[in-house]
Amino acid sequence: MTPAPYGLLAEVTHQCPLHCLYCSNPLELRRRDEEIGTEDWLRVIREAADLGVVQVHFSGGEPLVRGDLAELVAEARGCELYTNLITSGLGLTEERAKSLVVAGLNSVQLSIQGDTAEASELVAATKRFDKKREAARIIVDSGLPLNMNVVLHRLNLDRLDAIIDVCESWGAERLELANTQYYGWGLRNRDLLLPGREQLAAAEKVYQRRKAELAGRMELLWILPDYYEPYPKPCMGGWARTALTVAPDGSVYPCPVAADIDTLDFPSVLAHPLDWIWAKSPAFQAYRGTDWMPDPCRSCSRKEIDFGGCRCQAFALTGDASRTDPVCTYSPDHHLVQDAVDRANDTPVAAPEPVYRRPRAAAE
Ligand code: SF4
Ligand code: FES
Question: What keywords tag this UniProt record (predicted)?
């Protein structure tokens, strides 16, 4: 028996007002006219609850773009699921927040890109920092716990103290400091975003100091920069092991980035029930457990700890999702990561031009 997934990431849309340099959505975004409708989402939520899911994270893109969001939240709460909204905050009004609270929303994770409008613009090609501040106020006033998220990289790590100050002053209960992952869109901007070792170490000291100072008031979490770790992260807790992602068009993936792995045929909720997709579909079986592993993972004592790392990172860097994550010191492809780390620690040359994320055109 395959254990039940714990979480569902409901990517209700890829439409987004931001254009982040490290966007974690797949390279090929789904257009608005490809999105599944309300009835299909309501069915997916019921099927997820039947499957054993206990948490739904409504995400995107910007999930507030969808007018039926409160209806989806209400359905999830009706199925006794914990509901979390992952948002840029752009588009959140008092009325919208009220409707989400009435629907039973449990928590909100608000992202910022920096501590000022200018810093936000550099990363997301849009200023609107004042709208994020306003969104934080609305969330706190509506009685929802405010969790915040900031993706860290070379352009904002030196501002970490100020970033933490902003989140504290806005009333955050929890702040996730996530070092950038370099697959998907982030890989295109890797030489611009990957910090040097000294910059990273200085920021980690700031994190440790502030974590101690803020204990009991605001929880700080540090998501490791895997390029500077000897072993990879146990990405998603292992392939198809704890969570699943439903994309805006109804395609289902073990993680949000897996859509980029074009060697697998991912199933859709329009063609199959979620329990079959989770337990039986070939794409979900492909890298589940440890039987699929090549060496060095196959004979490694850490294979039940990190599950060979991230399949999406292996695919993005080598073109083969079954290879050992190149972050791993033992990987035969480790030089692909080490070369980038060496460049990030070399004497700086001119910074590369930023490549901002743009939506696919409707006629594409
Ligand atoms: Fe993990 Fe594989 Fe590296 Fe061992 S060889 S540490 S299992 S990625
Ligand atoms: Fe897909 Fe790591 S992001 S497995």
Answer: 4Fe-4S, Iron, Iron-sulfur, Metal-binding, Oxidoreductase, PQQ biosynthesis, S-adenosyl-L-methionine
